[in-house]
Amino acid sequence: MPSVAILDDYHGVALQMADWSALVASCRVQAFRDHLTDLDALADRLRDFEIITCMRERTPFHRDLLTRLPNLRLLVTTGMRNAAIDLEAATDLGVLVCGTAGGPESPPAELTWGLILALVRHIPREDAETRRGHWGTAVGMSLEHKVLGVLGLGRLGATVARVGVAFGMEVIAWSQNLTAERAARCGAALVSKDELFARSDIVTVHVQLSERTRGLVGARELGAMKRRAYLVNTARGPIVDEAALVRALQNSAIAGAGLDVFDEEPLPDDHPFKRLDNTVLMPHAGYVTEDQYRVRYRETVEDVAAYLRGAPVRILNPKARS
């Protein structure tokens, strides 16, 4: 009987978000809520599984892990792109990789605005202080007439920009291939990268992680920001130089940061971000909504069922079948 591992089910909801009954009748399905980072422990846990399903980029599947999983034949990732999976290695080892749809597109943009509002109105701090009996401890910043700098004006960045316009903000944007016409359609003005960091009261990051964007926001860019400005990153951690951001926050070179993504996830217990009072931290939850989960897990089940029938769907490395 084939065995199926469901990885990184942090919330313990994977088996409730889709109908797994068809698989349970023909497979041994096991969900794991904990996250293993040790390669030996992870390889030992997964060695006997023929099918593994993973949630986006929570657990990386690089060649060093894949070579230690001799029974693995199918790897299913939520989403149709997962930078944490070495597709070339999977193909070399005969492991088929399949994906799923991503569900509604708005949740990461919604979380971006949640972080912005939490920062500028000091919501986490005021909540905590109110519960302790301290009534009114911080003075917030209004958004109207402030400058929102959007780094990357793709699908998510455009949504964030339009909300900024609705709040009465001046929206400016930059990315390497952005045109003035595209920016204008979102209510934004195209500016240079230097101008974006110098003028913005809030900078929000929405570019994809690549070798071209890794470290795109570094000490130079952070140093150009206003001391009262905020940085928000719901894209990918390595786009921002994490060490430079820690220094900027420690030195109050910027007012604060709202972060959903990090270089290492889950965030280590001793990370300096956790000791700073000018950060709002989320556990890479931009896509974590019930609507998203129901689509992702439903199509995960479909992928596994199709593979078991000998007719796999949504294949990301078709050469693995040759």
Can you give me a brief rundown of this structure?
This protein is α/β, with parallel strands linked by helices and 322 residues long. It has 12 helices and 12 strands.
Plain-language structure description:
The structure is a single chain. The protein is α/β, with parallel strands linked by helices and 322 residues long. It is built from twelve helices and twelve strands. A seven-stranded parallel sheet has the order 8-7-6-9-10-11-12, with helices on both faces. Strands 2-1-3-4-5 form a five-stranded parallel sheet. It is elongated, with a radius of gyration of 22 Å. The relative contact order is 0.15.
List the defining traits of the structure above.
single chain, 322 residues, alpha/beta, seven-stranded parallel β-sheet, five-stranded parallel β-sheet, 12 helices
